[in-house]
Amino acid sequence: MGSFRDKLTRFMYGRYGIDKLYYALAILSFVLLVINAFVHSSILSIIVWIILILMIYRVLSKNIYKRQKENAIFIKAWNWLKSKILLAVRRIKEIRTHRYHRCPHCKAMLRLPRKRGKHTVQCPRCKEDSKMRVII
Ligand SMILES: [Zn+2]
Q: What's the mean pLDDT in 39-54?
């Protein structure tokens, strides 16, 4: 068993291995597999195969720099998507007490108390005053 481990270690030396994009692709392919169990689509099974081949290719790839760049792009996109989802959830949770508006100067999201009418708001990021209307 030890020799197999040594062989595997020697084989994986200089190769990229596993990262967050790998786990995301694994979860995506699993979800598609579960969906395909109900739908029975050949296109979906081809997509799953492409994802699995891509996963293996990335793990065994020796172009580490390129794989790290792909992973960084994925993490950036994932964090962007996660922040949008969390903001949407927060907006729904606070729909009775607060309203969200973008600052016209720096585009930061501002959380305003739900009071009907025009308000002068100072943005905490850019310190600019702007008039905003809250519609209930
Ligand atoms: Zn601002």
A: 95
